[in-house]
Amino acid sequence: MGKRPGKIGHSSQPPAADPLNIAHGALPSREVILRFIADHPQKASKRELAKAFGLKGESRVELKHLLRELEQEGMLQKTRKSLIRPGALPPVTVLDITTRDKDGELIGRPAEWPDDQGVAPAVAIRQSTSPAGRNGKGKAPVAGMGDRILAKIFPAADRGGPAYTARIIKILDKRRTASMGVFKDAPGGAGRLLPIDRRGEEMVIDPDYKGEAKDGDLVEVEVARLGRFGLPRAKVLSIIGSVASEKAISMIAIHAHGIPHIFPPAVVAEADDAKPATMSHREDWRDVPLITIDPADAKDHDDAVYAETDPSADNPDGVIVTVAIADVSYYVRPNSPLDREALKRGNSVYFPDRVVPMLPERISNDLCSLREGLDRPALAVRMVFSKDGRKIGHTFHRIMMKSAAKLSYQQAQAAIDGKPDDKTGPLLEPILKPLWNAYGVMTRGRERRQPLELDMPERKILLKPDGTVDRVFVPPRLDAHKLIEEMMIQANVSAAETLEKKRQVLIYRIHDGPTLAKQEVVREFLATLGISLAKGGNMRANNFNMILAKADDTPHQTMVNEMVLRSQSQAIYSPENIGHFGLNLMKYAHFTSPIRRYADLIVHRALVGSLGFGEGGITPDEEGVLDDIAAEISTFERRAMAAERETIDRLIAHHLAGRVGEEFEGRVSGVTKSGLFVTLPDYGADGFVPISTLGTDYFIYDEAHQALSGEKTGLGYRLGDSVTVKLAEAIPLAGALRFEMISEGRKMPTAVRSFHKAGRRDASRARKKAGTRPPRGRR
């Protein structure tokens, strides 16, 4: 019999996968599979498992069903080509090297890590001792402190240290060992640096090293001297500005997440030297009246649309919809300085005061922006729909186009609603009405498809000229928005279908369905509202839509939407397709925003190459590393989302800092063992109410009912409750608000109180059996 999996290490030989005396060729138990995956994440695909356990024929089918069950129960997660245990690191991960261990070895942590999974695991970085790098070619990458790397992850053999070790695939970013903080004056002309990161360290800044920094400035510093005693001493490198300014708040997020925001000279030079595209390998579509419909303040325009009635007698009342997308692949070629910088960024990042673009303005706002009246290169898809909204065919084209008009969503909608202006009046009959007619046709197909229809209004922050918050508002959701959204979705579907038909590898946008464990949490919660959710692993978006419909126009509408949202997996990029649960689509790729998303650029290159459209196609080298690229850009997308969210949190906290002591109307948006999260709908801000401040009763947490209720009084708070709170503390740099509850708890349903009584009886029996005293409650 072979060795136990935990002793195999990283040999290239197939592991002996018989840790519990499982006969070779017999289907292993659930426990054996889970242990094997934990010990061998690099061999945790269905194919590798079948090979390791010698499974063939019917046994492989049984293995497939067993793995699916484990996924649905939340015991496993599918990530690109492999399976992982929930909370485990995927086989390829982006790491930030943050410290060294006692032996001086580098330690990294995942660049992005979900808040609800606790502290990110430490990873010991294995530096290669071989002169050859990946595949034996070139020098092995050598990383240092502050670097961001793409790494292959392995379980650690030594259980006394970090849980993982990593081999460096490549260095993504050589980051300066700089810190950011707030400069505070100190006696004698010196200063102190107050860190913006909770894990940061306060530093001393000598008078000669503070430059022009003033009290309250946000500054970037480097460590000038470390001693055995006392605080580190630092030198001011740059002054971002007053910490009270909005500019400083977005810079905090940029720095904290390591978002590249300054283009290197070689990248700027390549962009500046770019020449307009030629007609080579292009169809001349400059007479097609494509128009752009975007936000009023948009600076780049990467999509244009046009629609007409299908003249074919075989498709009565059908429509033809054309979507044209900026041809970024013509200008950004594989492995060029522009390409390497775009991959390092992964996507553009949007803050209330600025955009950190993926590509320089010369490309994004000029050569690739589909400006009104100017010749611009594009990739276009011409889609034909029947009158019931079924797509019956599509073709791709590499074109030269000229936008007939630049409209805002509000302009286009107003024209359709009977209030055209001087610009939209002439466009109403020939362009806008056919677009809306096509949208009506496509809506029939969408209604039949039944994507997940969550009602979660998106709040926007409007800034004053000085960069501070003016107001927070929910912009109206117009048909113009939905029209563009549906046309872009169908263009994305067409791209995936074409590339699959050409047997061309690509990066999909995938979204797995909720696990059985998450479904059960939602099911238990809905049961407390008298709403049933059918059991079974084969859930579809439509199942959730029926639940959402039952909650419409009830006091529970918002909380039901939030619970359904929390049950969903996170969409990611992957060269392995599992479909998109939320959109209820089996084939879906991002094609429509190559100016701001690297995934779309890869799809454009794949189309150019597989359809013989000329220069700028995907290369064999790119095809070979799509797994790595998907891992990077998925991480960078999460990085951007976190930075944008934290910036808004800090802005709102700064906006409310002068209103400590005031009362606000809010809604319970989260219930935990330690307290309540309350959202202020007028501001889109979340704050925390510690359980210790709720009152003198002993409050018990009930996950199924999403409630905290008093043991003696039966009064408590549930998810979705409307409450009045007082702002007790605002910490702008942390983006944190702390509230005190003003509203009295309401009487909890009988089921909640019964649950608590049963739980207390069980706890009492357990303590008696163990001979321990009851713990003191939070009062």
UniProtKB/TrEMBL annotation:
One of its GO terms (biological process) is mRNA catabolic process. Its EC number is 3.1.13.1. GO terms for cellular component: cytosol. Keywords: Cytoplasm, Exonuclease, Hydrolase, Nuclease, RNA-binding. Residues 1-22, 750-779 are annotated as: Disordered. InterPro entries: CSD2, NA-bd_OB-fold, RNase_II/R, RNase_II/R_CS, RNase_II/RNase_R, RNase_R, RNR_Ribonuclease, S1_domain. It is an enzyme of class 3 (hydrolase). Its main location: cytoplasm. Residues 766-779 have a biased composition (Basic residues). Transmembrane segments: none annotated. One of its GO terms (molecular function) is RNA binding. SMART domains: RNB, S1. It catalyses: Exonucleolytic cleavage in the 3'- to 5'-direction to yield nucleoside 5'-phosphates. The keyword Amino-acid biosynthesis does not apply. It is found in: Cytoplasm. Residues 661-729 form the S1 motif domain. The keyword RNA-binding applies. Belongs to the RNR ribonuclease family. RNase R subfamily. 3'-5' exoribonuclease that releases 5'-nucleoside monophosphates and is involved in maturation of structured RNAs. This is Ribonuclease R. It comes from Rhizobium tibeticum. The gene is rnr.
